[in-house]
Amino acid sequence: MDSSENHHGRVSIISDGEYGAHFNKADGGWGVRHVFGLLSFSALAVSYMTRNSINIAIVAMVALNASYVSGQTDVCPLRSLSNETSDNTPTGEFDWDEETRGMILGCFFYGYLVGNLLGGFASAYLGGRVTLGVSVLFVSIISLLSPVCIRTSSTLYMGLRIVCGIFQGSLSPSIFTLMVTWIPPKDKASFGSRVLIDKTLKS
C-alpha cells in the first residue's frame, strides 16, 4: 500500500499493484516522473539562489566601516587607501551594524523552521502540486520585492525574509509528497538523490 493524490489534491491510499499499471507506460523512455524530477530540481535550485544571494550581496551592500574593522583582531586589516581616489574607495549603500547584518542573514531560518511544519500539513490537505506551485510563486515574488523593502526599512526586509523562509520551508515536504505519487517504488531512491542533489551542489 502507498499514498497518492486524488483529483481534489488530497492524499489517498493506493495499492502497489496500481503503481505498475500507472507507471509501466513510461518505463521505456522519458515519462512523467522524469518531468517531475526536472521541475523539482529547478524549484529547489531557484529557492537556493533566492536564499543565498543575500549572503554574497550583503558584502557590497554594507558601507565600509573602518572604525569597526580596525578594532577587531580576527579580521584582515584594511589596506591603506590614502593614495587612491575616492571613486575607488569600497563602500556600500546601507549603514548596517553587525547585529543588523546578523539578523538579516539569520531571520530567514526562523520562517524556514515553521515552513517545514506548515508545508507538511499543507501537502497532506491541499496536495503537493498546489503547495509546491504556491511556494515557488511567492518565493519569486518576494525576491522581486526585496530591493524595495531593503531601501524602505531593514526591519521590513527582515520580515520579508521570514516570510520567504516559510514558503521555502514548504518546498521539501511538498516534493516528498509528490515523490510518493509520481515515482515508482523501485525508482524512489535514485530519483530522490537526483532531485535533492542540488542541496549538495549549492552548499
Concise synopsis of the structure shown:
With 203 residues, the protein is mainly alpha-helical. The protein is built from nine helices and two strands, in the order E-E-H-H-H-H-H-H-H-H-H.
Description:
- The structure is a single chain.
- Helices cover 68% and strands 4% of the residues.
- It starts with a strand and ends with a helix.
- A hairpin with a 5-residue loop joins β1 and β2.
- The protein is mainly alpha-helical.
CATH superfamily (homologous) name: MFS general substrate transporter like domains
**Could you name the CATH class?**
Mainly Alpha
Query: In angstroms, what separates the terminal alpha carbons?
Result: 36 Å
Q: How many domains, in number, for the residues?
A: 1
Radius of gyration: 22 Å
By DSSP, the count of extended strands is 2
Helix and strand sequence:
EEHHHHHHHHH
Shape, per Cα inertia axes: elongated
CATH-derived architecture? Up-down Bundle
Q: Largest sheet, order of strands side by side? A: 1-2
Which class do the helix and strand fractions yield?
Answer: mainly alpha
List the helices and strands and how they pair.
Blueprint: E1 2-5, E2 11-14, H1 16-23, H2 32-61, H3 66-70, H4 98-106, H5 108-126, H6 128-152, H7 154-169, H8 171-182, H9 188-202
What are the key terms here?
203 residues; mainly alpha; Growth Hormone, Chain: A
